[in-house]
Amino acid sequence: MDDLLPDHTHLMHMYAIRLPEMERVWHLHPDRVESGVFAQDLPAMPAGRYQLFADIVHASGIPETLVTEVDLPEVAQQARTYDDYARQLAELQGDSVAYVGVALFGAREPVTNLTGTLPLLR
Q1: What is the separation of C-alpha 7 from the centre of its chain, rounded to a whole number of angstroms?
Q2: Residue ranges of the domains in the chain?
Q3: Cβ(99)–Cβ(71) under 8 Å?
């Protein structure tokens, strides 16, 4: 993913749309941290399910849209550290959280470099 062109001055435009109502939309611009790996701190967003759309444009001019869904559980808004989040999440009953996900897209080595120290992401 080294062949990206900026579109309106950004390499990626990401939209987070709250489901199912679709009443909240965020337009974000993740930063490239390595070839093919982008990162974005999320703004304060209500707990719930979100569909993410990430738009990129290749040097050939061909656009590509990457799509995924994630749940932002209530516990994520209450935790102040990753360890606190992991502890609180472990205390929840299984049906309290549909799933917790992190979407990473890119070559294996850079993604592994980012997740290697995060035990929940292995």
Answers
A1: 20
A2: 13-121
A3: yes
Burial 81-95 (b: 16+ CB within 10 A, else e): eeeebeeebeeeeee
Q: What are the tens digits of pLDDT across the range 65-107?
A: 989 888 887 776 777 777 887 787 777 766 665 554 556 666 6
CA distance 15 to 43: 12
As a whole number of angstroms, the distance between CA 65 and CA 54 comes to: 5
pLDDT, tens digit, for every residue of 28-62? 999 998 888 888 887 878 888 999 999 999 999 99
Check: CB of residue 29 under 8 Å from CB of residue 14.
yes
User: Cα angle vertex 38, ends 115, 75, to 5°?
Assistant: 60
Note if the bond before 20 is cis, omega within 30 degrees. Answer: yes
Question: Which amino acid is residue 91, in one-letter code?
Answer: E
Name which of 60, 61, 63, 49 is nearest 12 in CA terms: 63
| Token code pair at residue 6 | 């900026």
Q: Considering only CA atoms, which of 10, 6, 11, 9 is closest in space to residue 105?
A: 11
